[in-house]
Amino acid sequence: MKGNSWTGRVAVATGLAFAAGPAGAVEAPPLAGCYARVYDAAHLSRHKDQFVTRISLSVAAASRAMADTQGTGGSPIVAEGKLRMWVRGHRQSFDSHGACAATDSGLMCGGSLSAAEADTCKSRRDGVRDCRVDPADSGSFKIEARPDGILVSIAERLELVPAPYDGGPFLSISPANSENRAFLLKSAPDACK
Questions:
Q1: Is residue 61 within 8 Å of 32, Cβ to Cβ?
Q2: Calpha distance 52→73 (Å, rounded)
């Protein structure tokens, strides 16, 4: 992502340590894979305040350069999480590429910052906006294993941006948003292509 901060804020993490194989290859991080969910019309009609209509997530090993950095609290970066969301009324996805540290329950990923310049919003209302909630704070999201997939949840207000990542609009989601803060995804290898 243009202008992103891979070494941005990553919440305190404990547990698994970064490891490299004998040839120097980076081992697969916890929860590596591709996941997705598309919400059908019936679901969306029952959840009128849910604006996310589709979501995908790719979790891959951190690059060697990224893995040599540490998140907040000194936990190593072990993965890269590419989160994409589609919302009502917009055809293009809103994306965040996060550096992820292992936790005892999965991964904590810092959001990415866009190079886009825009006015700061006067309101912290969630949804698609032409202004930035806080251009210096990338937010974060959690990834946790569940018996039937993974749970992606917003840990700190997250801002996502459409490609090419150098302009708006911006999608803002807070952890207080009951209809748009947590998403149960299933394995979907084709969703990351």
A1: yes
A2: 32
Look at the pTM and tell me if it is higher than 0.90.
no
Task: Tell me which H or E stretch contains 126.
Answer: none
Tokens representing 12 are: 């305190």
Asked which of 15-24, 69-78, 131-140, 145-154 is least confident by mean pLDDT, the reply is 15-24
Closest residue by Cα to residue 99 from 174, 31, 11:
11
Mean pLDDT on 110-114: 84
Distance of CA 151 to the CA centre of its chain: 12
- Nearest CA to 133 out of 81, 173, 104 is that of 173
Residue spans of the domains in the chain: they are 33-192
What residues contact 96, with CB distance under 8 A and at least 6 apart? 1, 82, 83, 111, 112, 138, 139, 141, 158, 159, 160, 161
What tens digit of pLDDT does each residue of 134-153 get?
Answer: 767 789 999 999 998 999 99
Please count the residues of the chain: 193
Q: At residue 107, what is the residue type?
A: L
